[in-house]
Design goal:
Elements lengths: L13 E3 L11 E2 L3 E8 L7 E7 L7 E2 L8 E3 L5 E3 L10 E6 L8 E9 L2
Antiparallel strand pairs: 1-9, 2-8, 3-7, 3-9, 4-5, 4-6, 4-8
Length: 117
């Protein structure tokens, strides 16, 4: 599957539109690809992100838990954060939520993918 097969109009990114919701990204379809890291731009204001998942794009999103706690990453603007890709294996649709509102501008968080197929 190439990136062109992705039905997400933002094309494989987590996009936080402050006019819609200032701390929750739009849905992102990851298909059979696994995410092993996230790149945060200089405009990102939060200090942590938590992952939410759903079976479908418009379904109910719930927190992803790993070892009895929500899967949350401590993050910093202009940094790349790597993690064990098995924590999100098998999940089709994801959103991220920031621990605080994105204040000044929309934010785009770019996932780093690893293809396990």
């Amino acid at each position: 599957m190439g990136y062109g097969d992705n039905p997400n109009p933002r094309d494989n990114t987590f996009f936080i539109d402050i006019s819609a919701d200032d701390d929750l990204s739009e849905p992102m379809f990851k298909g059979h690809l696994d995410i092993c890291g996230l790149r945060f731009g200089s405009e990102f204001d939060g200090a942590a992100v938590t992952f939410l998942e759903s079976e479908t794009e418009t379904g109910t999103y719930q927190e992803v838990w790993w070892e009895d706690a929500a899967f949350t990453l401590t993050v910093t603007a202009s940094k790349t954060v790597m993690f064990d890709p098995t924590k999100l294996s098998g999940i089709k649709w994801l959103k991220i939520t920031s621990d605080g509102p994105e204040a000044g501008t929309d934010s785009e968080v770019i996932p780093i993918f690893r293809d396990f197929s």
